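A reminder before we start the practical. When you read a complex entry, don't treat the lines as separate problems. The point of joint prediction is that each chain is placed relative to the others, so the output describes one connected object in space. Small molecules and nucleic acid strands, if listed, are placed in the same frame. In the example below there are two entries. Take a minute to note the order of the lines before looking further.
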Amino acid sequence: QKEVEQNSGPLSVPEGAIASLNCTYSDRVSQSFFWYRQYSGKSPELIMSIYSNGDKEDGRFTAQLNKASQYVSLLIRDSQPSDSATYLCAVNPDYGGATNKLIFGTGTLLAVQP
Amino acid sequence: KAGVTQTPRYLIKTRGQQVTLSCSPISGHRSVSWYQQTPGQGLQFLFEYFSETQRNKGNFPGRFSGRQFSNSRSEMNVSTLELGDSALYLCASSLGRDKYNEQFFGPGTRLTVL
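Here is the predicted structure of the whole assembly.
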């Protein structure tokens, strides 16, 4: 079982719609979760971090965390063609000590249709 | 504030050679982590440095090594290059070694091994 799983997509949504990106993780002790956006040929760019159960909003982005279900999601409201990119879910496994090691999912390709 | 810088941006080497990549973190950041990104394996953690010490290492052969200097700049070295080492090598910078630390990626070094 992969440690961090994402649907590879592509997820196609019309402009102005809500895009919903999902991620599950296998290590129950994980405490911190991150969403990165990566445009083709570029490096990952941090969008959101979330550490507590519930929702965290930042502009058009909302991250949702459910530790009991080991599930984290990213909602993008009013999707724009410029949001078309690969979205990477990353988890800090926190193997009992301080670490910056992140485990990444394979990413979901989002395509926003004008 | 300047972001993470990596040099060189592109590199072409032949099998058996060695290569050194450099990373300068965001000013004030003391932790540097390295990742390898390939189409087949995605983003994989190589190692993490903090206060000039390697704190964590991923599942890569000993041909991959690194170091960190007193100014937090980091280098990684790959010896006896193999075709499979062709990848985007990413450096990520963070303030410290807390699992809640956000990590910010540099533009990457694209290594091609012929």
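Discuss with your neighbour: The interface with chain B takes residues 31-32, 34, 36, 42-46, 49, 51, 88, 90, 92, 94, 98-107 of chain A (CB under 8 Å). What might explain this?
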